């Protein structure tokens, strides 16, 4: 990481950033160029391992690539705001971001698919009962991204602490 002063290692701050993100962008290798997908997601920690769940159609490019190119990159960001200044070089941008790599797989076991959908619903604070028909679960692809490495950056506090 180039800007060490922006590195976030505090678990509570990382959890805050994860909880405030609404979209994860997953980059999958394809023949012509990387294929980037903006997806809603849910996250959970399994011991020390960060896992993301996403969902989608049963067929299509995303499913095909997840099967053939399971090692993926991902990015998510949040807490955006412009920092203005008197001169152009005084401008900056506040943000918090997470970038990493992991293994993407299609979840095939029925109860894990249900669990993945619950995790996704929890990300957005869904208070409704999490009931899914068997047909709905069977008709949905659930993807699990097991993170192998990641880094978290934020320049939000850098500017707040200067003032």
* Helix/sheet category: alpha+beta
CATH architecture: Roll
How large is the radius of gyration?
A: 18 Å
**Spatial ordering of strands, largest sheet:** 2-1-5-6-7-4-3
The number of helical runs is 5
Percent strand equals: 35-45%
Task: Specify the biggest β-sheet.
Answer: 7 strands, antiparallel
Which descriptor suits the 3D outline? Answer: globular
List the helices and strands and how they pair.
Elements lengths: L10 H10 L3 E5 L6 E5 L2 E5 L2 E8 L4 H8 L2 E13 L8 E16 L2 H14 L10 H5 L2 E14 L1 H7 L1
Antiparallel strand pairs: 1-2, 1-5, 3-4, 4-7, 5-6, 6-7
What does this structure look like?
A hairpin with a 2-residue loop joins strand 3 and strand 4 (49-56). This protein has one domain: Pnp Oxidase, Chain A (Roll), CATH 2.30.110.10. The longest helix has 14 residues, at 110-123. Residues 158-163 have low confidence and may be disordered. The chain is built from five helices and seven strands; from the N terminus they run H-E-E-E-E-H-E-E-H-H-E-H. It has 163 residues and is of the alpha+beta class. The radius of gyration is 18 Å and the shape is globular. Strands 2-1-5-6-7-4-3 form a seven-stranded antiparallel beta sheet.
């Amino acid at each position: 990481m180039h800007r060490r002063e922006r590195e976030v290692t505090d678990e509570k701050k990382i959890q805050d950033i994860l909880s405030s993100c609404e979209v994860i962008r997953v980059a999958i290798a394809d023949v012509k160029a990387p294929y980037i997908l903006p997806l809603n997601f849910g996250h959970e920690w399994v011991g020390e391992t960060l896992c993301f769940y996403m969902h989608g159609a049963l067929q299509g490019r995303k499913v095909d690539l997840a099967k053939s190119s399971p090692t993926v990159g991902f990015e998510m960001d949040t807490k955006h705001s412009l920092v203005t200044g008197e001169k152009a070089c005084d401008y900056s941008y506040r943000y918090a971001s997470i970038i990493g790599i992991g293994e993407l797989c299609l979840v095939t076991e029925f109860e894990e698919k249900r669990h993945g959908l619950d995790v996704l619903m929890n990300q957005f604070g869904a208070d409704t009962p999490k009931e899914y028909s068997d047909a709905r679960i069977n008709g949905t692809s659930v993807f699990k991204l097991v993170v192998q490495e990641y880094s978290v950056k934020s320049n939000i506090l850098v500017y707040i602490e200067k003032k």
